[in-house]
Design a protein that fits this description.
Elements (H helix, E strand, L loop, with lengths): L3 E10 L2 E11 L4 E5 L6 H9 L6 E6 L2 E2 L5 H7 L1 E3 L12 H11 L7 H15 L14 H14 L4 E5 L7 H18 L2 E5 L3 H5 L4 E6 L2 E6 L1 H5 L2 H9 L3
Parallel strand pairs: 3-8, 3-9, 6-7, 7-8
Antiparallel strand pairs: 1-2, 1-4, 4-5, 9-10
Helix pairs in contact: 3-4, 3-5, 4-5
Bound molecules: adenosine-5'-diphosphate and magnesium ion (MG).
């Protein structure tokens, strides 16, 4: 059985069709990349799954349970966590307190603060932020803030981790580190990952499968190699610019 089934999902904002009749499934343990130009509907897809916005039509099923109409905290408790493209730390809280908050409110919520702190420090260690634990979150570099987004999502104890452009704006060496972190986390937590990146390159080596959105429609789905030479993808990416 697939972990996530998206069935015929559409979302409009006023007159704007952000997503139209999107259907796909994600198997347990897969890394599925989501590609598409700015405005293609990628972030909206995560918002629908995570309960931050409601679809106008369609179904979303995780491990046999409908996500439709559930609030974000319920979706989180069921084991789906997202990061935000525009990072959203509690800027005045320390890095540690940000992650502890996620532990305390997540799926694996701990009953005591002491337990939550142990868990949060472990996550920070795994993500390479241990030395920043006592610093205010707002003082982190961009790379640090992207890591903190991943740490907060991970600390909620997800089965499905949704990463929204966590490599955008990073230097090539920071991108390499982030890719290594994602691979390591996937293995140690047996995660299923949906990952949005603007740039094809970063997704090619990481993803088992890639989905391409274009103006709210799904124009391709397949292995990275197949998608990279799909005529509709080339037209959308290169044709428009050529
Ligand atoms: N809350 C919103 N209200 C109105 N329009 C929105 C909202 N969120 C997204 N949109 C619009 O929906 C389209 C898809 O946006 P988005 O999902 O953020 O694209 P992507 O993440 O692929 O860049 C864009 O045209 C965007 O302006
Ligand atoms: Mg986006």
């Amino acid at each position: 059985m697939s972990l996530l089934d998206i069935i015929d999902v559409s979302k409009s904002f006023g007159g704007l069709q952000a997503l139209q009749d999107i259907s796909f499934s994600v198997e347990s343990g897969e890394i599925v990349g989501i590609m598409g130009a700015n405005g293609a509907g990628k972030t909206t897809l995560f918002s629908l799954i995570a309960g931050h916005a409601r679809p106008n039509k369609g179904e979303m099923i995780m491990a046999g349970q409908s996500l439709k109409g559930l609030r974000p905290n319920r979706v989180c408790r069921l084991g789906a966590a997202r990061t935000f493209q525009i990072v959203r730390p509690f800027r005045n809280l320390t890095v540690l307190d940000n992650v502890m908050t996620a532990v305390l409110f997540g799926r694996d919520h701990k009953s005591s603060k002491a337990e939550a702190e142990i868990r949060a420090r472990q996550v920070l260690d795994e993500i390479g932020l241990a030395e920043r634990a006592d610093q205010a979150a707002g003082t982190l570099t961009l790379s640090g803030q992207k890591r903190l987004e991943v740490a907060k999502a991970l600390a909620t104890g997800p089965r499905l981790l949704m990463l929204d452009e966590v490599m955008a704006g990073l230097t090539p060496s920071e991108v390499k580190e982030m890719l290594a972190v994602i691979r390591r986390l996937k293995d140690s937590y047996e995660l299923t990952i949906l990952i949005i990146e603007h740039v094809m390159q970063a997704l090619m080596g990481l993803s088992d499968r890639i989905i391409v959105l274009h103006h709210g429609e799904m124009i391709a789905e397949g292995t990275p190699a197949a998608v990279a030479k799909d005529p509709r993808v080339l037209e959308a990416y290169i044709g428009g610019a050529a």
